[in-house]
Design brief:
It is a single chain. With 486 residues, this protein is of the alpha+beta class. The chain folds into 3 domains: 169 residues, no CATH class; 152 residues, no CATH class; 73 residues, no CATH class. It is built from 15 helices and 12 strands. The longest helix is centred in the middle third of the chain and has 27 residues. The two termini are 31 Å apart.
């Protein structure tokens, strides 16, 4: 028994994809899967121990029906247009109908070469596969829109990067994996006849509310812009750095997609660059909102045959307001503030200055902030002060914050409950990922991966058995280098 899949809806377009054949791995195994996602998709856990499923999800099945496909796209990578990209190591197996009526695309990542692999081998390594598996499900648990990860299959076959590594295949799921780069490809190749059908497909399958607009294609671009702004606001609020915000890594559904050298902020640093390959800091934490708008500008160019230039520019300019509103609302929630005040943005900005100077742990600061009393003379909690080598600026800022809390007039216990519900205690820190990866890679032991998955499935509830996963990082964590190589 294996996953029952339907013909991919994308094939209706006729111009976007090519049929592909996965390349088998020797002696594949399926050590981990997401039972939470499986339940959403209506897949019993027992399916994942079946030999047919292991073969199907490792790219090793004797027959695939329907035939897998790979799509073509282009994109701006680190600001430079690359005319030919595409699913170089991803294959869409088919669509799956979930019990709630939703339809999901099921995709293998690392299952071999496609017509769009260029000079690459189409494979993925265990290291990057574990990182994406854990991050996808953790981001979902944090309430941030994301593609999902269903399972990992592994093989003793070597994959050659800087050194030989273990081969792995990730089974991903999403309502759609369509990207900004799909529109860019047909626009820059002057195949403009494909742009309207692609936009119409998106509207029919994912944005039906745009159908009745005066210009449905402009309404589609507006909706993608709003979703992108909302997504980036959530990234910034939780301290997530994507690392490779190329236009081909931007989802048309406003999902976090393609987890490579990502990272969550440890000590707060606006200039943090999580990708060792990003020498110029193009995708630094503080740059992410600006890059997102720049990427929308490139997508807007591809919409020029579908809408008036002035209207598209107005939509792109509206990104700033959408983002700022979403970000400030998210930060108010993190601060336990229910009502809007004119100086809230200044309060947030000044707090980040305090965190920046002290390089205080971003996640733990907001979690422990819920313990701060609102009374003017009350001392700051020791748990909070321990994050600061020198607390003078924090104490000064806290006076303003306490006044703001008193305006809210919320009982301390209720404020703490509300703040704990939006400020995670557990996030995917790179040093924890590295430990779990080493355990799996060097010893074939996936217990560390399973433990992190179980913890990050509920990032807001404190549990004593995961106390070690809520610590500040050890000193050696600062030396971890994550790059685009995977």
């Amino acid at each position: 028994m294996s996953l029952a899949l339907h013909l991919p809806r994308l094939q209706r377009l006729g111009f976007l994809c090519e049929t592909v054949r996965p390349e088998a791995l020797s002696r594949p195994e399926l050590p981990v899967f997401s039972s939470e996602l499986a339940a959403e998709l209506g897949i019993p856990d027992s399916v994942f121990v079946q030999a047919d499923t292991v073969a199907q999800l490792s790219g090793s099945a004797a027959r695939y029906d329907p035939a897998p496909i790979a799509t073509v796209y282009s994109g701006h990578q680190f600001g430079v247009y690359v005319p030919q990209l595409g699913d170089g190591r991803a294959m869409l197996l088919g669509d799956l109908a979930a019990p709630d009526g939703s339809r999901w695309e099921i995709q293998l990542k690392g299952s071999g070469k496609t017509p769009f692999s260029r000079f690459a081998d189409g494979r993925a390594v265990l290291r990057s596969t574990i990182r994406e598996y854990l991050a996808s499900e953790a981001m979902h648990a944090l309430g941030i829109p994301t593609t999902r990860a269903l399972a990992i299959t592994v093989s003793p076959d070597p994959v050659y990067r800087e050194q030989p590594e273990t081969a792995a295949v990730l089974t991903r799921a999403a309502p759609s994996f369509l990207r900004f780069g799909h529109f860019e490809y047909f626009y820059h190749r002057r195949q403009h006849q494909h742009l309207a059908p692609l936009a119409d497909y998106l509207i029919a399958e994912h944005y039906p509310e745009c159908r009745t607009a005066e210009n449905p294609h402009l309404a589609l671009f507006e909706t993608v812009t709003r979703r992108t702004a909302a997504l980036i606001a959530q990234w910034q609020a939780v301290g997530f750095c994507h690392g490779v915000m190329n236009t081909d890594n931007m989802s048309l559904l406003g999902l976090t997609i393609d987890y490579g050298p990502y990272g969550f902020l440890d000590g707060f640093n606006r200039h943090h660059v999580c990708n060792h390959s990003d020498a110029g800091g193009r995708y630094a934490y503080k740059e992410q909102p600006y890059v997102a708008q720049w990427n929308l500008l490139k997508l807007g160019s591809a919409f020029l045959p579908l809408a008036a230039e002035a209207e598209l520019i107005a939509v792109i300019e509206s990104f700033v307001g959408h983002y700022q509103t979403g970000y400030l609302n998210a930060m108010r929630q993190k601060l336990g503030l229910s009502h809007s005040q004119p100086d809230d943005a200044e309060l947030v900005h000044d707090l980040l200055d305090v965190l920046q100077q002290a390089e205080a742990d971003y996640t733990l600061f907001f979690r422990r902030l819920a313990e701060m009393p609102a009374e003017h003379q009350a001392p700051l909690p020791d748990s909070l002060l321990r994050l600061f080598p020198h607390a003078e600026r924090l104490i000064h800022w806290s006076g303003r914050y306490k006044r703001r809390l008193r305006q809210e007039n919320l009982p301390p216990a209720e404020r703490k409950r509300q703040m704990d519900a939006v400020n995670p205690l557990y996030v995917p820190r790179n040093y924890l990922l590295e430990q779990a990866i080493a355990q799996a890679r060097d010893h074939g032991d996936f217990d560390g991966v399973r433990r992190l998955k179980a913890c990050w499935q509920d990032p807001f509830t404190e549990r004593t058995e995961y106390a070690d996963l809520a610590d500040t990082p050890p000193d050696w964590a600062a030396d971890i280098c994550i790059s685009c190589s995977s």
